[in-house]
Amino acid sequence: MYYIDPHIHMVSRTTDDYETLAKMGCVGVSEPAFWAGYDRGSAAGFRDYFEQLTAFEPKRAGWFGIQHYTWLCINAKEAENVVLARDVIAMIPQFLDRPGVLGIGEIGLNKNTRNEAIVFLEHIDLAMKTNEQILIHTPHLEDKYQGTRMILDMLTADSRIDRSRVLVDHVEEHTIRPVLEGGFWAGMTLYPVSKCTPQRAADMVEIYGPERLLVNSAGDWGPSKPTAVADFILEMRKRGHPEGLIRRVVYDNPLEFFGQSRNFAFAAPDV
Ligand SMILES: [Zn+2]
């Protein structure tokens, strides 16, 4: 089955990973800007990163027939530095018309601090002024529930936001309901050590149905599994779910969500 991984950090992965993904049926990836594992010292560091995301990664993915898309921002962790964040936000519009740039992301909260919230709102304002879609990172573990509530409160307070153009990612059992009921898209991240397993993601599809639901690997430089979406497909098959339902979650839904972006020019593979 062809699938799209809507959240994966390929800059942290090898070319061999692209080859493995292609062999498993992956035909598209979307790569949000994220924390590199160290704090960048200047906006110029982000400029170089955005160059990599918009120029080299699409080329590397293309070697294996994978279409690469990306999202730009300063991540929540480095957003604690508001001065740096404002420099980066001011630079982002220079990249928004490049092919494959789907919007602003992954913005959000990390430790739910005041500075993170300030920078989150300034990203939202940029997205509204430039008519961009938004991809949102929700915090980890003990900070997740409160952080998700704060994020949803900030989003619903802004009447300019079209909720069908916002993806709230890394949802779990205790956060998925308000995201879907709010009219947003929800992403489930399949991680080996935290967030969500393929089994738990399949449970949530069974409970909530496939509408506005995405699954991703969020493969990155830490413990993660870039082929996790294929594990989800297998889990759904083991449970006897029809191929049409599985394809909706792993292929049709990403196409529907990304298709709202002006820079999403996906060439569907022949089937
Ligand atoms: Zn991420």
Structure overview:
- The protein is of the alpha/beta class and 271 residues long.
- The chain has a single domain, classed as Metal-dependent hydrolases (TIM Barrel).
- It is 42% helix and 15% strand.
- The protein is built from nine helices and eight strands.
- The chain has an eight-stranded parallel beta sheet.
- Helix 6 links the parallel strand 6 and strand 7.
- Helix 2 packs across helix 3, helix 3 packs parallel to helix 4 and helix 8 runs antiparallel to helix 9.
- The chain is globular.
- Bound molecules: zinc ion.
- Zinc ion binds next to loops.
Looking at CATH, the homologous superfamily is Metal-dependent hydrolases
Q: What is the assembly state of the chains in this entry? A: single chain
Number of strands: 8
- In whole angstroms, how far apart are the ends? 10 Å
Task: Tell me the number of structural domains.
Answer: 1
Q: Within the CATH hierarchy, at the fold level, what is the topology?
A: TIM Barrel
Hetero groups in this structure are: zinc ion
Shape: globular
CATH class: Alpha Beta
As a whole number of angstroms, the C-alpha radius of gyration is 17 Å
Strand ordering within the main sheet: 1-2-3-4-5-6-7-8
What portion of residues belong to β-strands?
A: 15-25%
Instruction: Enumerate the spans where pLDDT stays under 50 for 5 or more consecutive residues.
Output: none
Helix count equals 9
Order of helices and strands: EHEHEHEHEHEHEHEHH
User: Roughly what is the average pLDDT, rounded to an integer?
Assistant: 96
* Helix content estimate: 40-55%
In terms of structural class, how would the helical and strand content be classed? alpha/beta
Architecture (CATH level 2) name: Alpha-Beta Barrel
